[in-house]
Write a structure and sequence with these properties.
By secondary structure, the chain is an all-alpha fold. Among the domains are: about 160 residues, no CATH class; about 120 residues, no CATH class; about 160 residues, no CATH class. About 70% of the residues lie in helices and about 0% in strands. The chain is built from 22 helices and two strands. It is elongated, with a radius of gyration of 40 Å. It starts with a helix and ends in an 18-residue tail after the last helix.
Length: about 650
Amino acid sequence: MGSARATKLILHGLNVINVVFGLAIAAASIWFFVQVHEFTTLRNSNHYLLDYTVYWPQAVPWIFFVVGVFVMSVSCCGFTSVSKNNRGLIHMYIIFLGIVIVCLIAAAVVSLVFADNKSTDDFVKDTVWDVYFQAKTDNEVASAFGVIERKLHCCGADSPRDYKNWKAEFPMSCCDVYYRGWLEPYSIDCEFTNKLANERHGCSTVAAQYARIAIKVLSAASIFIAIIAIISLVAAVALSRSMRKKPRVPVAQYESESKKVLLVLSGHGCFGKYLCRIAGREPTTQCHHCSCDEDTAQHTLEECPAWDSQRRVLVAAVGPDLSLPAVVKSMVESERSWKKVKSFCEDVILQKEAAEREREKSSDLPIRKRKTGPWHYYLASHSVDNVHGARLISLTIMAKDELIKGVLYVMNIVYAVFGFVTAATGIWFFVQLQEFVSLRNSNHYLLDYRVYWPQVAPWLFILLGLFVMMVAFCGWCGANRESRGLLGIYGLFLILIIVGQVIAATLIFVYVDGEDTDRFVKDTVYDGYYNSQSNPDVFKAFGRIERKLRCCGANDARDYRSWRNDLPLTCCQDSYYRATCDFTDKEANERLGCAKVASVYTKIISSSVAGASLLISLVEIVGVILAWKLFHSLREVEHYIHERKEGETEC
């Protein structure tokens, strides 16, 4: 018990550390993104129109931001599971902690391998030089570039000498600012002879070094959190193993042999008072074995003359005091007393039950007839006085729970299939887009670091599909293990999936199914088409697209009249079996251009997956409701239901 408590305290401390460092990584990532964005917003937009590539200095902040938020979420889950002392939540915490460790290590490795290299230097250098040249003609950009120079303590793009070709002196941002008491800040004349200004490095070098340092710091923090997470994982596994299911109540272990004792101690046996006032099976409380007006458990133990012979044996074992507290005390203190009390109760109750059955058979009173309707069992189960009524209701509840579990199994299989299909569609969609992107003339796409919606849609599908499959597996495990912790996590994440699907579908319908997609596809197809005129490899690749989409040219078949004597074979039907394809071919001339066809296909695929997501979200709402019902129907109580023995009464 002490070791488990110490493990819990350790886990609490480790989770606090993880939350703090996760928050720090997320905050640092936001800061890094803001710094990078300050450069990219100053670029000459005319140079960055058609490059759809995302570069590592732009991706790194988002990678670490997502990882930091994930670490905080899992740490909060771990804190809750330890506080609730719930094995199901701890198991889920262990699973997600393993995923966190993999993500942390992967983020650090990817950043150090791909981002901390020459590509970062080239990205920063291209951006700084573009801002520097634009600052020559744009005063607002020049002022913003001055802020960057002052912040980074740098001068010029490559070095301070960059200003000597077109300025009479250094800008004030290249020189230090001095303060004197409470006076306003002032700076000295910033001439080309200023020693401090000439000793400064160029902003491209300083910014690249800062970017690399930030990447290394984020990667080191990620590795450190991974180490803490590994320690947390070991502690969580140890805590999970130390937890055991609550032992069953000792009396319930011997229900078959101690039931008669319980009937006597509780007063819910074949006693006149119970049968009259609670069970409604007798018109009076009179004892049928003597002339006493009220038959109770205490009367049977101490007074009823019908049981004198059994009572003498009982008194010899437990003493003359046959009050219930004295009998219970004697049972606890002596095994011999326990056996004698059990023998007395079994003998007496069996005889009283036999007499009760005889009265049922011989009496014509309706009140003594056995009540077997569902309303009787419903009332009995709510008063805990009718054992068999409670038993039937428990069986009914168990049957309902099994039905809910079965439906959840089927629904989670549907969710998993939908997630797999969505992820596969996203991968296929991404591959199809890459066929277009690979046709572009790379010289036109060097400096645009923006991401366009047709490129975002496949990744939305992939992430959504993987998340749905993971949550479906969580729901299946929760229903199978009947774990309230897993079911709670499953319901929570299912709600997040529903919200995510609605948001993703809305974004797709609003942004992907619009003019941006037409412009993106048109620019890409046109560039591939024009590049195919001088590159045979691109011409073959563009032909494969024409054959696959059953299109011709960029706009239509007339595009080829300006530079070819006939149409490509890929524009004609049965192109594998033809030798030529003339401009007079009717089927080829009726084909649409690849720009329009590709745009329509992109919108159809995106809209179809978005519509399917909205439809499946309705089914997921049903899953949330069923998980919630099963969550509430499960209780931390052990039920021990046995079949009714032959000849046993409802007493």
